[in-house]
Specification:
The protein has helices spanning 11-17, 24-27, 40-58, 62-71, 89-105, 109-116, 123-133; strands at 33-34, 38-39. By secondary structure, it is mostly helical. The structure holds fe (ii) ion (FE2) (2 copies). One fe (ii) ion is lined by residues 43, 47, 72-73.
Length: 134
Amino acid sequence: MDIHLSEEISQDFYKEVKHIPADGEFLKLSAFVHHQWTNRLMHSMNVSYLSWKMAKKFGWDEGAAARAELLHDFCLFDFSQKPPTGETVAFYHPKEAAKNSVRVFQISEKERDAILSHMFPSLSSILFWEIAVL
Ligand SMILES: [Fe+2]
Ligand SMILES: [Fe+2]
């Protein structure tokens, strides 16, 4: 599968994340329906770009924001099924996404923390944004 970005998408954004959609395992996210009307790959691309734009506007670490949000749902699991751990999907998928992201892309601790906390922002994730602002 090749991904073609609109010319409206900033090349500065693409430079931050281009290694991620080039990965075959990550592209498998396109096989999963997400939020009923899209797939998990497109959802992740959209969230990543909006996060990159927001972080850039506020002077935060836009590269980390773009990568963390692109990978926040990097979980090759059908969310309509019961997770193998017995947890709800809301608790299960951030951990799987973080684990997969570390394994495949060697993300930073800051990015890992953002992925882990994306469903339920914690004090540490708020601190991430605070630190990014300073
Ligand atoms: Fe998501
Ligand atoms: Fe999620």
